[in-house]
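Re: weekly structure request thread

Next one in the queue (174 aa):
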Amino acid sequence: AYIFTNADGCSDTASSTIVVADVTHLSVSSIDGQCFNGDEITLNNVSPTGGNYSGKGISAGVFTPKKAGEGVHNVDYSYTNSDGCKTETSFNIEVFEAREIKFSIDDELCSNADSIDLSSTRPKNGTHRGTGVRNEYLVPSLMNAGSNWLVYSQIDLNNCENIDSIEIDVISVP
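Done, posted below.
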């Protein structure tokens, strides 16, 4: 209460009630690392829901690893409760590096060329697919004359698939 008395001895009293609203506690669940070429994910790892996510690679609450880029990214979350009290938190999402595929093969072959060992493709422990591939060897005589595609895919230690292809032109030899 507030009491005021003026110079003439007149006094008055005023009082007011102040309500202090509780701030909402935010609970954050971690998000596993994401592959650079992985699918976008809808962010819903903070409770209560209904707030706003922001950060690199985020639009309308959706995180796109390729847009964010490789590395560790900070994500901010802002929530305003029914009393108008705003609470904020942040967390990180890691985007794993995409591995570059390196082929060691010419992009032009004669149809009568010897079989080519594909084991020099990097990174190791992947799989080759395409016309003419037999047990990790490329057999030109089994390929079509003209344009052919050799595809290589490899799963890395982060369980991310790395995939690339090369176009090979096969020249038919009589």
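The two ends are 107 Å apart (CA to CA). The helical segments are 65-68.
Next request, please.
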